[in-house]
Automatic annotation (TrEMBL):
Domain DUF4064: 2-103
Keywords: Membrane, Transmembrane, Transmembrane helix
Ranges that cross the membrane: 7-29, 62-83, 90-121
Organism in which the protein naturally occurs: Staphylococcus aureus (strain NCTC 8325 / PS 47)
Protein name: DUF4064 domain-containing protein
Biological classification of the source: Bacteria, Bacillati, Bacillota, Bacilli, Bacillales
One family name in Pfam for this protein: DUF4064
Length: 139
C-alpha cells in the first residue's frame, strides 16, 4: 500500500524534533561553558523574576530534557523506518515516542506523529488475492 503521505509527515515531525534537539543541546552547552559574566547576568535575571531557580538547576533540567528529547526522536525515527513493513510495530513506536515527547514539550512533532498514527490505523493493508484461473500461479 502507498504510505507516502505518512512517510512525509513522519519525516517532517522527525526533522522538527531533531532541530528542537539541536537547539536544546546548544543552549545546554552554552549554559555549561559560558563565561563568568554571562553566568552572573543570567543568575541575576533569574533572581529578579522572583524565581527560586538556580543556574545549576536550570542546567540540569535542560540536560534531562535534551536526553528525553533524544529518546523520543529515536523512537520516532525507528517508527518511521517501520511504516512500510510493520505497520503495527510502527504504531506502537509512535505511541511511545508521543508519550516520551510529552515530557519535553515537543508539541509540533507530537501533533504530526498523532496524525500519522491515525492515518496508519485508518488505512488497512490491502491483501492480494490470486484466482486459480490466473495464468501466473502455475509458473
Amino acid at each position: 500500500m502507498n504510505r507516502k503521505p505518512e512517510l512525509i509527515m513522519a519525516w517532517i515531525a522527525n526533522s522538527i524534533s531533531i532541530i528542537y534537539l539541536l537547539v536544546m543541546g546548544l543552549s545546554y552547552f552554552s549554559l555549561k561553558s559560558g563565561n563568568a559574566s554571562q553566568r552572573e547576568e543570567l543568575a541575576k535575571q533569574l533572581s529578579q523574576n522572583g524565581g527560586k531557580v538556580s543556574l545549576d538547576m536550570l542546567q540540569t533540567t535542560m540536560g534531562a530534557l535534551a536526553i528525553i528529547l533524544l529518546i523520543s526522536t529515536l523512537y520516532g525515527i525507528f517508527a518511521t523506518i517501520c511504516i512500510k513493513g510493520r505497520r503495527k510495530l510502527s504504531i506502537i513506536l509512535f505511541v511511545i515516542a508521543i508519550i516520551v515527547s510529552l515530557m519535553a514539550l515537543n508539541l509540533i512533532a507530537i501533533v504530526l506523529w498523532v496524525i500519522v498514527m491515525i492515518m496508519l490505523i485508518s488505512k488497512k493493508e490491502s491483501k492480494e488475492t490470486t484466482h486459480k484461473d490466473d495464468e501466473y500461479i502455475y509458473h
